Amino acid sequence: MNILTNSGTISKNKSELADTKKNEENKSQENGYEENSYLNSLDKYSVYLPRLAFLFLLFTVITSGFITELLSCQIRYVLTTNIYARHFLAILMIFIFIMGLGGWSIDSKLDEMAANDWTSGNVIETIIMSIIIYITFLISSKSQLVPNLIFFGLLFLLYLINTQRNFWKARNMISENTDAFMLYSTYILGASSMVTLFYGFINYINYQKIQYGDRFSWFYFILGGQKCASLENEGYGGKKIKLKKTRF
Predict the structure, then answer these.
(1) Which is nearest to 107 in space by CA: 137, 128, 134, 92?
(2) Global confidence as pTM
(3) Number of domains present in the structure of the chain
(4) What tens digit of pLDDT does each residue of 152-185 get?
(5) Which are the contacts of 115, defined by CB distance < 8 A and separation ≥ 6?
């Protein structure tokens, strides 16, 4: 009788252990599913990260503006004296670059429906995206040196990590943990760059208001060209040059 009771107790304990183990496995699978679902969601929106990093390319191109010396004198005169022509040309340049990549759609699913090139891209939404990118670039240009360097440095790191991750992922050369770490890193860099962008912008507004006082104008602050005191005054690292009168 005792043997039967003990065997029944043992089988009951085994059954309870099996149920407990099964429940733990189910919970583990659910947690794993939730984590994978979260990562898949982040991965889905990671297609927008290169668009943010595109600002770094724009900065690189604009800083090499010496190529304007190759243009005709009339075009150079217009670009030198007309700030609106420069803004238009900058937006046009961004638009052409993006169309060279096949164009962008606000909804990335549209881009995935078919392969695009510069002859079949989404022109309307690419123009909208070009304007948004240029506005973001204008905001970034209204910043002092350190926030600006940090902002573009973060964008450059974002571009490097995201591009390398895509390269490894396309060739199955990356583990799940490394993939998740790099994906999280790109989002952290993207968020940090936006915080730096707006901090630098607000800080520069206060700086300009102190410098110009009542003469401060929002219109010229946003759309006007940059007059750099550091290039005109010796006290800021620049050097004033006095032209000597010369008789010919």
Answers:
(1) 128
(2) 0.68
(3) 2
(4) 999 999 989 999 999 999 999 999 999 999 999 9
(5) 102
